[in-house]
Amino acid sequence: DTGVSQDPRHKITKRGQNVTFRCDPISEHNRLYWYRQTLGQGPEFLTYFQNEAQLEKSRLLSDRFSAERPKGSFSTLEIQRTEQGDSAMYLCASSERNGRANSPLHFGNGTRLTVT
Amino acid sequence: DQQVKQNSPSLSVQEGRISILNCDYTNSMFDYFLWYKKYPAEGPTFLISISSIKDKNEDGRFTVFLNKSAKHLSLHIVPSQPGDSAVYFCAASASNYGQNFVFGPGTRLSVLP
Q1: Which of A27, B53, B77, B97 lies 20 to 30 Å from A71, alpha-carbon distance?
Q2: Mean pLDDT for chain A?
Q3: Cβ separation A58–B100 shorter than 8 A
Q4: What SS3 class is residue A84?
């Protein structure tokens, strides 16, 4: 059983460059989430998909951020024109739909972005 | 405005004793609560959850208590083991208001041998 996989694990980029991260969720999970975590803080919600539909976006997600999940499987998160404030751990999580009951999130190990 | 609060940034406990981690929330619409454990360089790992229709849920050494009137939950770990040393996050969601899970800032637990 493979868990949530994220690639790359680390990314160092110069300010102004674009970066793209990939997430492969647990195969039977149809919900996929992106979170961002900075030092000393808990994960902050960015966006979530149910299958290929992006159903919710945080106000944290500026127009420089875009996420896709084209076939309802893997997802990508792109950050355009990166800024130093974008430096953080980007976490992907998935969960299965279970009627009206909630299901826990299962996280990947994250992509650590450093913008210099 | 922090909807989920963990007011103790750190906690130290002797091995074999009970660890009690606390969490407070402000949004009365929250109806599902979770605890996660995080080791350095890894993603958060799900530990235990509780629905608002219950006031206690137990799984092995881990028990979560929910006090809805006080908007408070706690995680008890007994007996504590050195491998429990990690950062613990409390999270909450409101199932009728989207699927966003809101996390607290975390409490670093150190279990001393």
Answers
A1: B97
A2: 92
A3: yes
A4: helix
